[in-house]
Hints:
Elements: E1 2-6, H1 18-32, E2 36-42, H2 45-50, E3 52-60, E4 68-74, E5 80-85, H3 87-90, H4 108-120, E6 133-137, H5 144-149, E7 157-162, E8 170-172, E9 192-193, E10 196-198, H6 199-206, E11 209-212, H7 215-220, H8 231-236, E12 241-243, H9 271-283, E13 294-301, H10 307-311, H11 314-319, E14 323-330, H12 332-344, E15 349-353, H13 357-366, E16 369-372, H14 382-388, E17 392-396, H15 399-404, H16 410-415, E18 421-423, H17 428-442, H18 445-456, H19 463-482
Parallel strand pairs: 1-2, 1-6, 2-5, 6-7, 7-11, 11-12, 13-14, 13-16, 14-15, 16-17, 17-18
Antiparallel strand pairs: 3-4, 4-5, 8-10, 9-10
Helix pairs in contact: 1-19, 9-13
Amino acid sequence: MRSLLVTSEYYPLIKTGGLADVCGALPPALAAQGVDARVLLPGYPAVLDAVRHTVTVAPLPDLFGGQGRLLRGRAPDDTVLYLVDAPHLFARGGGPYLDPAGQDWPDNHLRFAALSWVGAHLPAGNDGWQPQIVHAHDWQAGLAPLYLRSRPDRRPRSVVTIHNLAFQGLYPSWRMNELRLSPEHFTADGFEFHGQIGFLKAGLVFADRITTVSPTYAREIMSAEAGAGLDGLLRHRSAVVSGILNGLDTTVWDPAKDTALPAAYAANDLSGKATCKSVLQRRMRLGEARNRPLFGVVSRLTQQKGLDLLASLVPAIVRAGGQLALLGTGEPGLEATFRQAAEDHAGHVGVLIGYDEQLAHLILGGADALIVPSRFEPCGLTQLQALRYGTLPVVSRVGGLADTVIDANTAALADGAATGFVFAPSTAAALADAIGRALALFSEPDRWRSIQRRAMSRDVGWTRPAQAYRALYQDLLQADSTA
């Protein structure tokens, strides 16, 4: 079984968020299930520099405004990567989507149409490899299923995975011709979305199957509240929509082997976690005290992530004897609010605006609890990391957060099932109640450690998700063979 993952990000080569983590970890997990999974990526400079043993597969002579070539090489974990080496589209500074000034690249429509086009028309190299499944990820690859429909030969089957429905890739209708799109599909039943071209909508209309990254999010996006204007389409296609929960790369996130931690620990010996806490307190200029509950945050600072809810509760956390270590970047107003909180509560609140991979690991290892108060969350990875590190998640009951954390309510505490603290609705009052319950339970060390061990025992790896994707691929191919 041969699958091509088409994506704009791939950890550890290029990353802005969870999309990279998923697309970096899923191919080797699929390989363990017998799937020959390869990845198609834009040829960003950092990617071209990092990929090993590249060879030219084929020229790409007419690629949305210039010439390019298709390269094949190996990722650090030996996954086969195909790279769209098109200097006119990808050889530039800045990030994958934004220029150095933080603005969208004005030709993003061409850049990701090119990625989708190559994904749908992948040339066979000297090994003759061709995909049976084209698995497009998010709006950046959303046109691939539509481009596949234009192939005159027997086409691969297609899957689109929604990582975040809020980002849809919308462009003016007058760009249809340069994107090689037919006006016959510019309808409400096609890729038209409120008078614009919808990259993600094209994928949702024309893909053979649609997945998203948690079962609860799959249900949520069929509602008007969470459907971002596409809920009607998703309800219409509900028979081919499924939610497959993301996993975590447990070789990267393992407190027993994590070189970013000052001390290793495991469920059967949590002593190293106390060392991690002390180091984190020093790093964030917090008072060193093992008996003070330390809440961590590793997040984009946005309204979607609910960080405004947390900001309003910082004084109450400090009054209750808690500490806060926050790492993130995002909306300027929230950045300023948390900077001010660190000044107002020196020794109790530590804030680093930006991103630091090493510090992210240290927060997961050293904090007692991790706060994830998202208003919506397709899956979430930090709560999985928190479970793995025995850092009890405090999460809102939405999306993948609801699917992965078991609330420490009376029943769950009684039967030993609790792994964290879940609250609803997404309000400051509900979050305050969950934090209050966490503070109360922290004062009972034996019960707290018991929940930590339970959290660390949860299977958060990629084996089960990869099995689900393999089953989906197999179902598609069997349906194709009997059609």
